[in-house]
Design brief:
Blueprint (H helix, E strand, L loop, with lengths): L1 E9 L4 E8 L8 E3 L17 E8 L2 E3 L2 E4 L2 E3 L7 E8 L9 E2 L3 E4 L1 H4 L2 E2 L7 E5 L11 E4 L2 E4 L6 E5 L2 H5 L3 E4 L2 E7 L2 E8 L6 H19 L8 E8 L3 E4 L3 E7 L15 H15 L26 H18 L5 H16 L9 H6 L12 H4 L5 H17 L6 H13 L10 H9 L4 H9 L6 H6 L3 E6 L29 E2 L2 E6 L2 E7 L4 H5 L6 E5 L2 E2 L5 H5 L7 E8 L2 E8 L1 E2 L4 E6 L6 H7 L4
Parallel strand pairs: 1-12, 18-19, 19-21
Antiparallel strand pairs: 1-2, 2-8, 3-7, 3-11, 4-5, 4-8, 6-7, 9-10, 10-16, 12-15, 13-16, 14-15, 17-18, 20-21, 22-31, 23-30, 24-25, 25-26, 26-27, 26-28, 28-29
Helix pairs in contact: 3-4, 4-5, 5-6, 5-9, 6-9, 10-11
The protein binds zinc ion (ZN).
Zinc ion binds next to helix 5.
Length: about 600
């Protein structure tokens, strides 16, 4: 048995104390290692750099510890148990890290639990202890780990079937608020940490149909016997999926309030529900239906797969769609979200440079390490992947006259791979899709996965009585999805007579002007020499900032020249910019005739 003990040693210093006991160490000397990354977040994070001190002993005898590489240690051969004591610095407030202060503690296994090498298949026990001191007397504990001892929501002893399971159960401790609900007979816990005034009853009421939708989509019974939604309420946004829990980060303004009324879904709350829906869908799609490359995970370094478009893209497609299918949001509200996703993909030239399979493969060094040039150079396997999922769903439905669709493909993936534990081969999706379609889908997959051609979305949506419109962006806060107030239409990228002009930059507010965050490759500013990082202070001698830049430009027409003053580092520079019309890359959707036709309902509401 492998035994761990973890306790917040000094919350004010952000230090966890961890002890690992290996009862029968390997005869040649016990090896110890910490993962370089955490499943679900494809970037090398080198968690071992947060180990502050590490000592080992056999009985009372201190042992010499040799460091082998950045994340591996070697103990000398000994007979009898060895105990390894170490401290972990926890000051990363993210869903993939560890964080400890006087208000709460949170950790992911890969940040704190060293693997006893050679024993990864063995079950392990973990004692999780409360910090010392009266100030922490009210702290509770939430985790999906299997409890061995201790009261419900209390500190105590837990177990995991193996090291992989130990890593997949994050732990939250503190004075959090919690509530429970059941979905298809499975108990679900909702935990909110941080200051907030959320309507917990509303949250449970709305999460239940989402969970039931996903469970029924893949088929009962659910693959977990309980589930925990853990949310750290802060000003960040994000989520990470686990086998029977999820860690989320959400702004408090995205949570439902008692003052919202029973049915109002604010945009922020819609986005929070979408996030919960997304991570819950992963319970099947990526936690159990996994790429063969992740079976098992090699956490020492990068593991490449071309399949992230399927695991993140299909999940991103269903996260919002299920909100409409369950009636939590109206079809129009769903189409607004879909319009925003289309807009995100079409605003970047990167979609013409990188395929989704390339984007998946290079996630480690490109999608997860985006710089100011990212929209010009890469495509998101989330957003483009979601559009491929949409196109695949509508294509399967077209070929089977709505008898079958993407739901059937997901069920087949679940039966063939999720339930068997076999990994999905890199080319494994297409044959199953063809089985659902009863037709060859070679052309579809070639175009969607291995080319950078745009998908035939307008045509596929038109069959459902939905029209895809394009217009120019109205300012830098325009996310798309809505008709917009200004005229201007046309094909994406095509000039349109009445469209407003722009500089072809994305700017951020700065006390001294408008800071260029990114210069679009086809934009007027780049052609004139402006770059990301430049601080624009004046247009034709008039002071500008991020807030008034669009208003100032509204006085100009296509083809006119303006003089732009900007600082690059501490040098004032002058650029002569020939204004170009804004490209019509902002999408929005409308329902023909104002209400969904039969084919629209069959798809969007999954109803005949
Ligand atoms: Zn995801």
């Amino acid at each position: 048995m492998i035994h761990y003990r973890i306790r917040p040693l000094r919350p004010e210093a952000h230090l966890f104390q961890v002890s690992l006991t290996v009862a029968e160490p390997t005869p040649e000397g016990q090896g110890l290692t910490l993962p370089a990354w955490i499943p679900g977040s494809y970037m090398i994070r080198d968690f071992a750099r947060h180990i502050v001190s590490l000592e080992a002993r056999a009985g009372d005898q201190p042992l010499d510890v040799a460091k082998i590489d950045k994340q591996t240690w070697q103990l000398p051969p000994v007979s009898g148990p060895v105990i390894v004591d170490y401290q972990v610095y926890a000051w990363d407030l993210s869903v993939r890290g560890a964080h400890l202060d006087t208000t709460h503690g949170y950790f992911n296994g890969p940040c704190v639990f060293l693997a006893a090498m050679g024993f990864e298949d063995q079950p392990c026990q973990v004692d999780i202890e409360a910090p010392e001191g009266a100030a922490y007397g009210t702290w509770k504990l939430a985790t999906g780990l299997q409890r061995v001892s201790g009261p419900e929501l209390g500190f105590g002893r837990f177990r995991a079937d193996d090291y992989d399971a130990l890593l997949d159960h994050p732990v939250e401790m503190g004075d959090f608020e919690h509530a429970e609900f059941e979905a298809c007979g499975v108990p679900h816990q909702v935990v909110l940490s941080g200051r907030q005034r959320a309507d917990m009853a509303r949250l449970c009421r709305d999460l239940k149909p989402i969970c039931e939708h996903h469970i029924k989509l893949f088929g009962e019974p659910a693959p977990m016997d309980r589930y925990v939604f853990m949310t750290l309420v802060t000003n960040g946004y994000g989520g990470l999926e686990h086998r029977n829990s999820t860690s989320l980060m959400s702004p408090r303004t995205d949570l439902p309030l008692r003052t919202d009324g029973p049915d109002r879904v604010r945009d922020g709350y819609r986005s929070y529900l979408g996030l919960c829906s997304h991570e819950y869908f992963h319970t099947w799609n990526v936690k159990r239906i996994k790429p063969a490359a992740f079976t098992p995970f090699d956490l020492r370094g990068e593991v490449h797969t071309e399949l992230l478009w399927a695991f993140e893209g299909i999940t991103s497609y269903y996260d919002d769609l299920s909100l409409a299918r369950t009636g939590l949001i109206k079809p129009e509200s769903y189409l607004e979200l879909l319009g925003q996703t289309i807009t995100r993909v079409y605003r970047g030239e990167g979609r013409h440079k990188q395929t989704v399979t390339e984007s998946s493969f290079d996630a480690w060094t490109r999608f997860y390490k985006q710089d100011e040039n990212a929209p010009n150079a890469i495509v998101s396997y989330y957003a483009k992947g979601a559009l491929i999922a949409l196109a695949l769903d509508l294509t399967l439905r077209r070929l089977t006259d709505d008898a079958r669709g993407l739901d059937d493909l997901m069920r087949l993936l679940w039966q063939r791979y999720g339930q068997t534990g076999e990994g999905v081969p890199e080319q494994g999706i297409r044959p199953l899709a063809e089985e659902v379609a009863g037709a060859d889908l070679g052309d579809f997959f070639r175009q969607a996965l291995y080319s950078t051609e745009d998908l035939p979305l307008a045509e596929l949506l038109a069959e459902r009585g939905i029209t895809l419109h394009w217009r120019a962006a109205e300012g830098h806060g325009d996310l798309g999805g809505k008709p917009g107030g200004k005229p201007g239409a046309g094909k994406p990228g095509a000039a349109s007579g009445e469209a407003p002009v722009n500089l072809g930059v994305r700017v951020a507010a700065d006390p001294a002007g408008a800071r260029v965050q990114l210069a679009y490759e086809q934009g007027a500013a780049m052609a004139a020499g402006l770059s990301a990082g430049d601080l624009i202070i004046a247009v034709d001698g008039l002071k500008v900032d991020a807030a008034n830049l669009d208003t100032v430009l509204a006085a100009y027409a296509e083809g006119e020249r303006v003089e732009v003053h900007a600082f690059r580092r501490d040098e004032l520079m002058r650029f002569s910019v020939t204004l170009a019309p804004s490209e019509a890359t902002t999408a929005w959707l409308s329902i023909d005739g104002g209400h969904l036709n039969d084919k629209g309902r069959a798809w969007l509401l999954n109803r005949g």
